[in-house]
Amino acid sequence: MFFKRYGKFAGGIDLPEEKGGLLDNPISPVATGLQAAIKHGLETATPDRLLVPLAPCGGAPARPVASLGQRVKQGQKLAEAPDGQGVDVFAPLSGRVAGTGSAAVAGEEGFLACEAIELTELEGAVNIAEAEPVFDWQAADQAALLERLESGALATYRPPVQPLSMWMRRAREARCDTLVANVVEGQPYVTSDHRLLAEFGREVVEGLAMLGQAIGALRLILAVDVRRTDYYRGVIAPARDHNVSRIAIPYKYPAGADAILVKLLTRRQTPPGGGTMAVGVAVIGAAACFAAWRWVACRQAPTHRVVTVAGEGVPRAGNYWAPFGISCAALAGAPDGTVHGGPMTGLRCVSHSVVSPATDAVLRIVQGDCSAPSPCIRCGWCADHCPGRLNVAALNDCFELGLVEQAGGAGVMACVECGVCAYVCPARLPLSHRVRRLKKALAAISETSPV
Amino acid sequence: MTGPRATAQPDSTPSIVGGGGGAPFIHAPEGVRTIYLVIMGAACGPLVAGTVIFGWRSLVVTAVAVLTCAAVERMYYKITRTPALLGRSHAYLTGLLLALTLPAFAPWYVAMAAGAFAIIVGKAVFGGVGHFLWQPALVGRLAVAVIFPAWLQPVAWPLLAQNRLLVGDIHRCRAVDDYRQWRGRPAPAGADGFVITRPATVLAELTADPPGFSTLASASRDAARNKGPLLLELPPINDLLVGTTPGGIGETCAVVIVVAGVYLIYRGYVKWQLPVFFVLFAWATVAVAPIRLAGAGETTTVAWFPLAAEGLDVGFTYVNYHLLSSELLLAAFFLAAETTSRPVTAAGQTVFGAGCGVLAMLLKLYLQAPIPCYVAMLAMNTFTPTIDAIFSRRGRGRIPSRAA
Fold first, then answer.
1. How far is A163 from chain B (nearest CA, A)?
2. Which of the four pLDDT bands, split at 50, 70 and 90, describes residue B70?
3. Measured between alpha carbons, how far is A377 from A380 in angstroms, rounded to an integer?
4. How many domains does chain A have?
C-alpha cells in the first residue's frame, strides 16, 4: 500500500463523521464586501471589515507600524512583534486602516481579548492557489532557511498556538529526532487539513521537509486518517522525494491527540502533563507546513488559513481560504450557535470572535438536548472510553469534593483533553471541562509548593 | 492537545473573555433515562415469564410495587422540597426490579411496604439517583423479608399447574404428596396448582445436622437407612431451567434471564465481567464447599469436594441445582448491574462479582439465609467504594521512556 497502516489504542470511540460533501469541497476564497463578491462571481458576501488581531498567539500584542487611515496592500506588514515574542501581523487583504479595536482570539481556556487593527474598504479576495515558488529552498543553505523560518511571521496553527520560532527553538532544545505532521483530523465536521493535504499535498510535504530540516529531525512522518488515503495520492511522490513516511492511522477518535498519535507511531509514551517533545517527537499540523512553504518558497505572508464552515443551517458550508480577522459569525453566516474549532474541543464563539491561526473550523451547532447535568450514576462509560485510561468518574468525585491532590494521585495529568468522556456521559456532565480544571489546579499547586 | 502549554508572556496576560468550557458540543444519543428504560425493557422478559408461570397475580404485585415506588418518590420530593432528579424513570425501574424479587403470592401491602422502603431507605435518604450505597430494590426486599417472614418464606410454596398457566390464581393451590415433576401434571380438582417444597429447601438439608441424605445420586448403599440420594428428591433440572419451580416472579426462569442479560451486555449497559464472575465464583464455591452426608448408622461423613465426590457428572448436576434453585441469575444479570451501587471499572466489577458469588453461596449453604444472593449483594455493595478506591486507574504513561 502507499500508506502504511498502524495499530490500535485502548479507549476512544467511533464518532459520527458528519463531514458529508465537504470532503470533496475545494478550498474557495472568501469574498469580503459586495464589490469583491461581484468581481469574483460569488453569490454571498461577508461584511466589509476585518479585525486583524495583533496577538494571535496570546501574549503581548505586536506594535502597529501602519498609521491610521493608511491604505495598505495585501501582505503588507501591519504590526511588528516585540523582541521576538509573538508574530508579525500582515494585512490579509488590501484596504484602509480604519482604527484599532478589540478582537477575541481562541486560546487554550477560552477566547482571549486582544488588540486588533480594523481594516475596511477591502479589495479583492485571495485565492489559495495564487502562489508561485520564487525561492529554491532546497538549494539554499541551512542558515538562510532557518533565518527565514524564524523571522517571526509564522505560528504553529494548532492549539496551543505559539510562534513557530519558539516551537522550533523548543524542538531543537528537546533534540527531537522525529517530526510528525498530524493530519488525522478525527473530529466531526472538520475538513480543513484534509482538503489542504488533498489539494496541496506537494506543498504540505515540502513545508514538512523544511521544518524537519530546521529542527534537525531525522525521521519525518505524515499521519493521515485510514479512511481518506485515496484523496492523498498526490502526496506520494513528493513524500518519497523528501523521505517522509506515510502512515494511515485508525479512525477511532482521538487517534489525532498528540500523545496517542505519538504512542501509535513511535511507541514512546508521552509523560502525563508533558508535551510530546519530552519524548523527542515534535508534532505539527498541515496548516503550519503549508504556511511555512508559502512563507519560505513563495515569500507570501501568512495572512489566511483554511477554515471549514459547516453545521446546521449554515448558508455557505464549505472549506474557505479565510483571512485572519474575519468575524467567525460572519463567516458562518449565522448570528448564534457558532462554535470555533472542532465540536469535541472547540469554544463557543463570543462577540468579536475572529479567525486566527488556531481556527480550523467555524461550525454552527445548536444543542438540541439542553438538559441540565444530572448526578453521576457511575455507569463507567467515561472510564471505558478514556484514551488516557483514567477513571473519569472518580475524577468527577474529586472535582465535586475539591480533592485536587487526590485527583493527581488518580493520574489526572494523563488526560489528553479529547472530550470523549463528556461526549458519552449519559448524565451530560461537563466531564472534560472538570478534568481540565483539575489539571489546571494541580499544575498551580505544584508550581507554588514544590515538594 | 497535550501539547506544550503556551509559553507565559511576562508583560501582559490577556484576559479570557469567555467561550471555554462548552466543549464537546455534540453528545452521544444515550442519556440516563435511556439506560433505565432499556434495562426496564430487558427486565420485562423475566416479568413476562413470571406472569406466565405464576399467573396474573404477578402483574398485580408488579403494578403495586412500581406505582408505590413512583408515588413515594414523588411524595418525598414534594415534602422535602428538593428538585426531583431524572424524573421517575429510576423509580419505575426500582419498582420493577423489586417486583421481580417478590413471590407472586405476596399480598399487596407487602409489595407496597417493599416499594416504600426501597425508595425512602434505599434511595431518597442518600440523596437520590447516583448517591445511594445499596441497591434500593434489594433494600426494600430485605426489609419485607425481615418484617413479613411468614408471607415471604413459607415452609411450602405454591406453584401453578401446567393446565392453569397465566389464568390460574396462585392463592388457590393445594398441597400434594406425590409431586415429582411439573411437566404433564394437571392441577388437583378444585385448585389451580400445588403447594410444594422449594428445591432450595431440599438442598439446605445437605448442611443440616443431622444430614438429610446419604448420597448425592448413587443408589442408597444401606437399605436399612431411611435416607436416600439427594437428586431423587429434586425436580428434573428442566423445571429449573424453564422456571416452573417456586420462587419470586422473575427469579426462576433461567433461560429468559440469561437472554435478557446477554442483551444488556450486548447493548453495553452491563459489563460482562460482573455477571460472569458472579456466576463463575458461585459455581466454584459450591463445587468445593464441603457438605454433610449421612454415613452408616447415626454417623455423619463430610464430602470435602462435592464436585468429585461421586463422579464429575453427578457433581456437575449437583452444582447446577444449587445455582438454579436460588435467585442467583436475577441478582447477577439485573440487580448487581445497578450502575450506582457497583464499582466502575472492569477490574473492580470482577472482584465485586466474584465476592458476591462466593458470599451468596456460603450464605446459602451454611447459614440457610432466606435470600442469600440478595443479602450477599447488599453486603458487597457496602464495599463498593473500597473496591473502587483499590482498583482506581492510574492513567497512561507513568514512566517517560526517554528523559527530556
1. 10
2. very high
3. 8
4. 2
Residue B353: beta bridge partners? none
In a domain, A111, yes or no: no
Contact residues on chain A for B404, CB-CB shorter than 8 A: 174, 274, 277-279
Identify the CA nearest to B215 among candidates B284, B318, B368, B289: B318
Residue A29 and residue A133 in one domain: yes
Any domain includes A385: yes
- Decide: A13 and A424 in contact? Cβ < 8 Å: yes
Beta-carbon separation of B14 and A58 below 8 A: yes
Q: Which helix (H) or strand (E) holds A338?
A: strand A338-340
Which residues of B, range 85-124, sit inside 8 Å of A by Cβ? Answer: 85-86
A403 touches B at CB < 8 Å: no
Residues of B in contact with A366 (CB under 8 A): none
DSSP E strands in B138-262: the ranges are: 157-160, 173-175, 193-196
Predicted pLDDT of residue A90: 93
Among candidate residues A111, A65, A117, the one with its CA nearest the CA of residue A96: A117
Strand pairing category for A94-106 and A111-123 = antiparallel
For chain B positions 245-274, those within 8 Å of chain A (CB to CB) are 268-269, 271
Residues A211, A253 share a domain:
yes
B361: helix, coil or strand?
helix
One-letter-per-residue 3-state SS of A135-159: CCCCCCCHHHHHHHHCCCCCECCCC
CB atoms within 10 A of CB B239: 19
Please give the Cα distance from A352 to A334 (Å, whole number).
Answer: 14
CA-atom Rg of chain B in angstroms:
25
What integer pLDDT is reported at residue A46 of this predicted model? 62
Domain of residue A190, residue span:
1-43+126-366
Contacts with B388 from chain A: Cβ below 8 Å: 391, 394
The stretch B222-244 carries a mean pLDDT of 78
Contact present, B321 and B234 (Cβ < 8 Å): yes
What's the grid cell of residue A248? 494511515
pLDDT digit string, tens, across residues A27-79: 988 876 655 555 555 555 566 788 999 988 877 888 899 889 899 999 999 99
Kindly provide the ipTM of the predicted complex, given to two decimals. Answer: 0.86
Q: Is B83 on the interface with A (CB under 8 A)?
A: no
Asked if residue A113 belongs to a domain, the reply is no
Residues A248 and A278 in one domain: yes
Q: Which positions in chain B touch A278 (Cβ < 8 Å)?
A: 400, 402, 404
Residue A53 located in a structural domain = no
CA dihedral A337, A341, A342, A345 (to 10 degrees): -100
Return the minimum-mean-pLDDT range out of A73-87, A245-259, A423-437.
Answer: A73-87
Q: Sign of the C-alpha dihedral, residues A364, A376, B333, B257?
A: negative
Q: Is the CB of B404 less than 8 angstroms away from the CB of A390?
A: no
Between B121 and B210, residue with greater pLDDT: B121
Segment B3-7 shows an average pLDDT of 41
Q: Looking at CA atoms only, how far is residue B131 from chain A in angstroms?
A: 8
N- to C-terminal Cα distance for chain B?
19
**Are the C-beta atoms of B246 and B235 separated by less than 8 Å?**
no
Give the Cα separation of B369 and B204 in Å (integer).
10
How big is the A-B interface in CB pairs under 8 Å? 261
- Nearest C-alpha neighbor of A407 from the set A383, A361, A380, A442: A442
Are the CB atoms for B11 and A60 separated by under 8 Å? Answer: yes
| Domain spans, chain B | 32-152, 156-196, 199-389
Q: How many CB atoms lie within 10 A of CB A335?
A: 9
Asked if residue A450 has pLDDT above 70, the reply is no
Assess whether pLDDT exceeds 60 at residue A1.
Answer: no
The three cell numbers of residue B296 are 452408616
Q: Tell me: the pLDDT tens digits for A154-199? A: 999 988 889 999 999 999 999 999 999 999 999 999 999 999 999 9
Helix (H, G, I), strand (E, B) or coil at A54: coil
